[in-house]
Specification:
The chain is an alpha/beta fold. The protein is about 30% helix and about 25% strand. The protein contains 20 helices and 30 strands. Helix 5 packs across helix 9, helix 7 packs across helix 8 and helix 13 packs across helix 15. It binds 5'-O-[(S)-ethoxy(hydroxy)phosphoryl]adenosine.
Amino acid sequence: MEAKQSPQSGELHVLLGTEQTFPPPEHFAAQANANDPQIYEQAAADPEGWWSGWADKLEWIEPYEQVLDWSEPPFARWFGGGRLNASANCLDRHVAAGNGDRVAILWEAEDADDPGSGSERDGGRRSVTYSELLEMTQRVANALKSLGIGQGDVVGIYLPMLPETVAAMLACARIGAIHNVVFGGFSAESVKERMQFSDAKALVTADATLRRGEPTPMKKAVDAVAGEIATLEHIVVVDRCGTNPPMSDGRDHFWHDLLDRADPDCPPEPMDSEDPLYILYTSGSTGKPKGILHTTAGYLTGVTATHKLVFDLKPETDVYWCGADVGWVTGHSYIVYGPLANGATSVMYEGAPNYPAEDRWWQIIERYGVTIFYTAPTAIRACMKWGREHPDAHDLSSLRLLGSVGEPINPRAWLWYREVIGGGRCPIVDTWWQTETGAIMITPLPGLTTTKPGSATIPFPGIEATILDSAGKEIERGAGTLVLTRPWPSMARTLYREHERFIETYWQGYGSDVYLVGDAARRDEDGYFWIVGRIDDVINVAGHRLSTMEVESTLVSNPGVAEAAVIGIPDEMTGQAIVAFVIPEGGDGDDMEKELRDYVAEKIGKLARPKRIVVCDDLPKTRSGKIMRRILRDISVGEDLGDVTTLRDPEVVKDVERRFAEQD
Ligand code: WTA
C-alpha cells in the first residue's frame, strides 16, 4: 500500500473536536449488565483468556484444543481443533433454550401500508420468530443442497433487505457453503465481477427491489451478465415484487417453489473453527475489489462479544435496530451474526429513511419501541438537514443507546444525535472498525466510558491499537498511521485466492505481526483515538468504501475518455464526494458530464456516481508521467498548491483550475 504521510487535505475538520466530554449517565452505569471497569485490565493481562471466555459462551459440537496459534504471523488460527456451526449458534440453541417464540426479526417494508404483490410478500410488516427463521433456514439449506451446493462452494447473495436474505446467509453457514453477499445497490456488472472472482456456483437474488415505490429489476439485470459467469449453475429468485421476471429452464428457480418442496429439517454441518464462513468484497487501493475472508469460530466470538458489550444488549427486553444494509460488513456482523448469536430481537427495514416521508425512521422507532439504534454519520447529517420537526413528532423515549459507524462523525452531528434523537439521555457509541476487522475495534462502552464528540475513544477490551510514524516509532500523543498490534479472533484470514495481496496490503508495513489499518488517526492527551481518514486511495462516500482507482478504470473504459483521475473531496452531507477529472478522447468533451456520471452508476452502482466531472485538456503530471492527484485535490478544495515545479508542464494547472471554476 502506498502510504502517504499526512491525511488527505481538507479532512482535518474532523480533528476539530469540541471541548465537551460526556461521562456515562448515572442511570445507565447502574443498569449496565456486563460492563465492569475491570474487564479492560483482565483482557490486557490475559487476552487469550478473555477471548476464550467469549468463545465458551458459544455452542460447540467439539471443543477447541488451543485458543490461538500465532506462531507464524500473520497466519492466525483461533480455537483450533474445535467444531461448531454458525447457524446453529444463531438459531437452534435459542430454540432449544425455550426461546423459539422470541421475535428475531421485526421486518418493515419500505412503505408498510402498501400490501404489494408477489407470493413472498405477506403484507408490509412481518414478525419472524427464532423458530420460524430456523425453519426457513433449514428449508433453504436443503434447497441449496438439492441444487448440488455443498461445503466450500461459493453462493452469491444479491438481495434487498428481507428476512429471506438473512435465511439465505444462515443456510449457507448451515451446510458449510461460503456466502458472498453483494450490496443490492451495486450494479449487475459489480455482481458479475464478484461472482467471477470467487467462482460462485449459485446466486440468490430477487425479481426486483423497491426503490421509492417503484420496482427496480434485479433478476433481469443479473440475466444480462449471468452468461459471463462461467461457474454459475443456478439462480434462485425471491419473488419480492411479483414482476414475473424471465426464468430460464434448469438454471433459474423460484425461492418459494424450492422451499415448498424442501424438507424442513437440515442438521447443521459440524464446521472446523477455521472453515470459511463468508467472503465480502470491499474496495482497496487498486481497481480490483478485495475478497475479505472470515472464518467461523473467531468471527462469531468477536461479533458476539462486541455486540453484547458495546450495545449493552439485554436480549429479553431490548429492541435493537441497525440501520445498515446486510450487503455491508455492518449488516453481516450487527444485523445478522452478532444479534442472532446473542438472541436479540431486531428491526429490519427495507427502505430509505425518507420514503414515503422524512419521519419514516422515527415512525419505526416509535412503533416498535426501539431501545438501541445504530446508524451512520451520513444518515444523521441527512436527518439534520430535513429538520428536527420529524423526530420531534414522534415518541422516541424508548431509546436508551445510540451508535454510529462507517466514517468519522463530526461533533455537530454527534451533538444533534445525542440531543434530538437521544433526548440527552442516551450514551453514544462511536464504533470504529472495518470489513477486515470483522468486529468493532475502537469504541466506548456505555456505562463506562466518558465520551467526546468525534472520538471513537479507546480500544475494545482485548484489542491493542497504536499510532506509528513513518519510521515505525510509536506516537503517544499526536497523529500518524493507525495499527493493531495484537491478533484478535474476528480478524480477516486472507483475501480470497489472493493471499500474497493480503500480506502485502496489511502485514508488511511494520512487520508481519502488525496490522496496517489504512487509516490515519490522532491520539489525544487522554489516550483517546480520533480517526482522521484513509491514507490510501480509498474514499468514504456516505459511509460506503470506494476505491478511486476503481472509478478511474471504469471511466477510462468509456470510449469517450482518454484519461481520468478521481479524487475524494470533503462534502458536508456525504463526508466525502467523488470528483473526476477527465481528458476526452477526441472531440471537445461537450455534454459529457451527465453521460459519464450515468456510466459510472451503471457500471459500479449509484453509490459511485461522481458528484462532479471536470473535463480538461490535460492533467497535472510529473516528468515521469504520473498524475499528481494531490494537486487536483488542492485545486478542488481551494488550497494553496505549493510547489508545482516538479510538474512536466506547470501551465496545465492553470487550465485545470479554470475548468474546475467554470464547470462548477
Ligand atoms: C472508516 C465499516 C471513523 C475508516 C464498518 C475505516 C470510521 C473504514 C468509523 C472501514 C468510525 C469506519 N470513525 N472512521 N467510527 N467506522 N470508519 O470496511 O476509514 O466499510 O477504515 O467498514 O471506514 O470501512 P468498511
